[in-house]
C-alpha cells in the first residue's frame, strides 16, 4: 500500500508507559490540527474496557500537555479498545471486528521488540495485515544481527514501503531545519566541507539520569540509546549530499550513503563513562558496566568530508540539557599572531531553543591589531514547533516515509557501532554534573569540546524569547 491515508490507527501497548507519556498527547494534537479523523484502536492485555482507556487518555493529557476539551472529546469518540493476549488468535479476531470497514489500518507496535514477531504473525493470520502499514518503536534491534532478524520478520509480512521505524529525532523540526539551513542557503555550500571545516562535534547533553528506566537503560547504554539512532540521524543531516529530489527515497538514499562511508568505530576512538550513583538506581546491576556517557570520533570517507574528524558526545547527568553542533573552521594564514586566534565556528543548537551562530574574530576595541572572538547569533524559541511524536505519527498515517529509518540505514548504523559494543571497553566513572570522565581527553577535538551553555545563559546572551 502506498501513498494513501491509513483509515485506522491501531496501537499495541495502549496501557503502557509510552502511550501515557507520548502517544495520547500526540493523538490529541493530531486531532486538534485536523490530521486524525479515523478510528483509533488501543490493544493491550490489562483487563480494561473502553471507558478505562478513555480515563487513562485523560489522565495522560492532564500530566502531559493539558486536556483540550474539544479535541479530547473528538479523540474519545474515535477511541476503541481490544483487550487480550498477543499470543491468542481471538485477540486478533476481535481486532479485525473492531476495524469494521477499515481496509488500510496502521498498526503501531508500542511494545517491546521481543513481541514484534508474535504480533505481526497474528496480524497476518487474522487478515489484519493486508493493505496495512506497521510502525515500530525504537530500539530497532540490539546489535546488527538482531536488527537483521527483526527486519526479516517484518519483511515476511509487510513491504519495506509499509514499514515505519520510529526515530523521534526525525520528527523534530530543528533536526529537519539542519537540512533546510544547508540546502536553502548558497553561502553554506561554500564552506560546509573538508576544505574549510577542521572538525565537527555533536553534543547531546542531559542534566538528568535514567528517570526510573534503570532496567531498560542497563540493557541498553548511551550508544544504543541515542548514538546509533538519534545522533547518527543528526550526523547524516550534517554530512549528506543534496538529494536529487525531495521524495522520501531520494532523501533516505543520501543519508544511507553517509553511513556507508563510515568505518566501524575503533576502540581507541571511544571513551565510555558512567555517572557515580548509577549503580544504585532501581533496576541497575550493582556491578553494571553499562555506559551513561560516550564520546567517540569517526570519519566519513566521502567526497565532502574525507579527513575531517566528527566527534559525538552524549550523556546523562551532565551539567545542562542541550543538543548542539559545532563545526570548527580551519585557521586562516593570519596577519595577527596565530596564538591569539580562536577558530571560527558554526554553532547549531537544536535544543532546548534553536540557534544558528557564527563565531568570528574582529579587532578588539581600542588601538592595535589585537583581535577578539564574537558570535553572531540567530535564535528562536522552539515552543511553536509541535511535538516530534505528533509529526512522525502524522507522517506514518499519510504514508510519508521521510521521517523514518529505512532497513539499509538501520543496518549500516549497527554495522558502525557493533564491533566496539562487543569489545567491552572500560567504563570510567564521572561525577554527576561534570562533562563526563577525565579520560574523555583521549577523544577530544583540537581546541577542545565546546560545552553548550544552559538555556538561561543562552537566552540571556542571544536575547531569544522563551
Ligand atoms: C530517547 C532516549 O530515545 O530519547 C532517552 O531513550 C532520551 O534516554 C530521549 O532522554 C531524548 O529525547 P528528547 O526528545 O527528550 O530530547
Summary?
The protein has helices at 17-32, 50-63, 69-78, 89-99, 116-125, 144-157, 173-183, 186-191, 214-218, 221-239, 248-260, 388-398, 407-421, 455-462, and strands spanning 8-12, 40-44, 79-83, 105-109, 133-136, 163-166, 197-205, 270-275, 293-299, 309-315, 322-329, 345-351, 354-363, 371-380, 404-405, 427-430.
Task: Describe this structure as you would to a colleague.
This protein has 466 residues and is an alpha/beta fold. 35% of the residues lie in helices and 21% in strands. The chain has helices spanning 17-32, 50-63, 69-78, 89-99, 116-125, 144-157, 173-183, 186-191, 214-218, 221-239, 248-260, 388-398, 407-421, 455-462, and strands spanning 8-12, 40-44, 79-83, 105-109, 133-136, 163-166, 197-205, 270-275, 293-299, 309-315, 322-329, 345-351, 354-363, 371-380, 404-405, 427-430. The strands form 2 sheets. Strands 14-13-12-11-7-10-9-8-16 form a 9-stranded mixed β-sheet, with helices on both faces. α6 links the parallel β5 and β6. α6 runs antiparallel to α13 (407-421) and α11 runs parallel beside α13. It is globular. The model has no long low-confidence stretch (mean pLDDT 94). Bound molecules: 6-O-phosphono-beta-D-glucopyranose. The site of 6-O-phosphono-beta-D-glucopyranose has 4 residues, from α10. 6-O-phosphono-beta-D-glucopyranose (BG6) binds at residues 168, 206, 225-226.
